[in-house]
């Protein structure tokens, strides 16, 4: 069995699309609609994420979507890009063998960015720790 798609309700579809494309490398799914009310995006593995406008976005506290990176350096780079883009994002932290941070996206979804630390735990430590 293969997961077909994940549907995200968001408060602002164009804003969500811009953030997903600019910072997370998602792209428009060919042949699918792209409007202010809905769009369909693909990741590098061609997993489909449908994004629909919703008035009241209220996910459970533990709900989030996660983007796995190949290295801690990529986690730090995405963090820097989001920060430079004007977003307030907590610093990446080492947690259970991973370097990770959570981003409360302004359209109502929490996004996690993470990478496994591998054999080099120093790579995930913040300066001064």
From TrEMBL:
<feature type="domain" description="VOC">
    <location>
        <begin position="2"/>
        <end position="116"/>
    </location>
</feature>
<dbReference type="InterPro" id="IPR029068">
    <property type="entry name" value="Glyas_Bleomycin-R_OHBP_Dase"/>
</dbReference>
<dbReference type="InterPro" id="IPR037523">
    <property type="entry name" value="VOC_core"/>
</dbReference>
<dbReference type="InterPro" id="IPR004360">
    <property type="entry name" value="Glyas_Fos-R_dOase_dom"/>
</dbReference>
<protein>
    <recommendedName>
        <fullName>VOC domain-containing protein</fullName>
    </recommendedName>
</protein>
<dbReference type="InterPro" id="IPR051332">
    <property type="entry name" value="Fosfomycin_Res_Enzymes"/>
</dbReference>
<dbReference type="Pfam" id="PF00903">
    <property type="entry name" value="Glyoxalase"/>
</dbReference>
């Amino acid at each position: 069995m293969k997961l077909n798609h994940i549907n995200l309700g968001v408060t602002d579809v164009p804003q969500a699309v811009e953030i997903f494309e600019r910072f997370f490398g998602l792209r428009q799914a060919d042949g699918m609609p792209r409007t202010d009310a809905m769009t369909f995006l693909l990741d590098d593995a061609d997993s489909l994420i449908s994004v629909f406008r919703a008035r009241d976005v209220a996910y459970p506290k533990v709900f989030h979507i996660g983007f796995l990176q190949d290295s801690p350096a990529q986690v730090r780079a995405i963090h820097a890009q989001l920060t430079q883009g004007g977003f307030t994002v907590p610093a990446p932290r080492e947690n259970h063998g991973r370097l990770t941070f959570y981003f409360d996206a302004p359209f109502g979804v929490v996004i996690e960015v993470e990478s496994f630390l591998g054999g080099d735990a120093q790579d995930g430590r913040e300066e001064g720790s």
